[in-house]
């Protein structure tokens, strides 16, 4: 039975590559490798900052380095951080995926010569609704959030803006997108970008789940504060579920895409309006042999 299961998974993968210009079909997996340390961009005032360069596609091409950056919030960037982003990565555009209220409360640190765009994936109202669910179940609240990435007009508009910026980015200038912790809105956006570029689904999950490694200190610090304040174990556990990423969260978004559009490929084409020519352009721009 195990050998039959492996054959079936292999057939699904081949089918996925045959559809939508080789966009992989999300598939089950049993083990996730650790993201290489070379992807990490070490900044003093921001965490979970990574360069997607170096990931391999199903056709053995590689994502070009220093062009596609994902991150947590940039409010605390130091002068050194700004210099690194400008001089090493030639950063051109930053896309802020956070809610309007959070953007107003903790705006990004400005960087001379860099364009900052606001593209909230969820509204303050939606986020408040998600937070209310988190009181009962952290996992259910996160799955609700991820489904909204697919089902709401606002989220689709935000992710379309991300791709539009990537399509018109200069050849040697980096684009960075981020949310608060760089794991959910940023994580799903990154999964979409890697999928469009033809990166295998196993690697997409690998990159997504790596936020648990890069956010570990931040998560532990927040939970420690709750414990000192006398929060119950249940409350701490519920909070932990909202501070980490789980494959079930990303799968909730994929399932929502299957339900609403028939597949993640259709979500990209019909939901975000990406044409075959757009995908060809993105691959030409961001991939190398």
Largest sheet features:
5 strands, mixed
- Low-confidence runs: 1-20, 27-34
Q: Name the overall outline.
A: globular
CATH superfamily: Protein tyrosine phosphatase superfamily
Determine Rg (CA atoms, Å).
19 Å
Give me the CATH architecture, please.
Alpha-Beta Complex
Number of domains: 1
The share of residues in helices is 40-55%
CATH topology: Protein-Tyrosine Phosphatase, Chain A
Separation of the first and last Cα atoms: 38 Å
Give the strand order, joined by hyphens, for the main sheet: 1-3-6-4-5
The helix/strand series, from N terminus to C terminus, equals: HEEEHEHEHHHEHHHHHHHHE
Q: Mean pLDDT, nearest integer? A: 90
CATH class: Alpha Beta
Q: How many helical elements?
A: 14
Helix and strand arrangement:
Elements: H1 2-18, E1 50-51, E2 62-63, E3 68-71, H2 79-87, E4 91-96, H3 100-105, E5 115-118, H4 124-136, H5 138-151, H6 153-168, E6 174-178, H7 185-196, H8 201-209, H9 211-214, H10 216-228, H11 233-243, H12 247-261, H13 264-271, H14 276-286, E7 287-288
Parallel strand pairs: 3-6, 4-5, 4-6
Antiparallel strand pairs: 1-3, 2-7
Helix pairs in contact: 4-5, 5-6, 5-11, 5-12, 7-8, 10-11, 12-13
Family: Belongs to the protein-tyrosine phosphatase family.
Protein name: Protein tyrosine phosphatase
Organism: Secundilactobacillus pentosiphilus
């Amino acid at each position: 039975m195990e050998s039959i299961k492996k054959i079936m998974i292999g057939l699904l993968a081949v089918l996925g590559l045959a559809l939508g210009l080789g966009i992989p079909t999300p598939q089950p997996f049993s083990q996730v490798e650790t993201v290489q340390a070379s992807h990490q961009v070490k900044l003093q005032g921001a965490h979970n900052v990574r360069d997607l360069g170096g990931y391999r596609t199903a056709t053995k091409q590689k994502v070009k380095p220093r062009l596609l950056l994902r991150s947590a919030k940039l409010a605390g960037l130091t002068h050194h951080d700004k210099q690194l982003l400008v001089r090493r990565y030639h950063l051109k555009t930053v896309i802020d995926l956070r809610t309007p209220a959070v953007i107003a409360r903790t705006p990004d640190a400005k960087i001379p010569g860099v364009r900052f765009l606001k593209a909230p994936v969820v509204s303050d109202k939606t986020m408040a609704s998600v937070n209310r669910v988190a009181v009962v179940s952290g996992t259910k609240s996160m799955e609700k959030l991820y489904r909204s990435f697919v089902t709401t007009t606002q989220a689709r508009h935000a992710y379309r803006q991300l791709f539009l910026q990537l399509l018109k980015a200069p050849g040697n200038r980096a684009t960075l997108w981020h949310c608060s912790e760089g794991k959910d809105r940023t994580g799903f956006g990154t999964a979409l970008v890697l999928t469009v570029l033809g990166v295998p689904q196993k690697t997409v999950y690998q990159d997504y789940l790596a936020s648990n490694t890069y956010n570990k200190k931040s998560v532990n610090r927040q939970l420690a504060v709750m414990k000192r304040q006398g929060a119950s174990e249940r409350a701490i556990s519920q909070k932990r579920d909202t501070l980490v990423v789980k494959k079930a969260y990303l799968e909730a978004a994929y399932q929502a895409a299957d339900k609403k559009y028939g597949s993640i490929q259709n979500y990209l084409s019909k939901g975000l309006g990406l044409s075959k020519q757009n995908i060809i352009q993105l691959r030409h721009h961001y991939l190398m042999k």
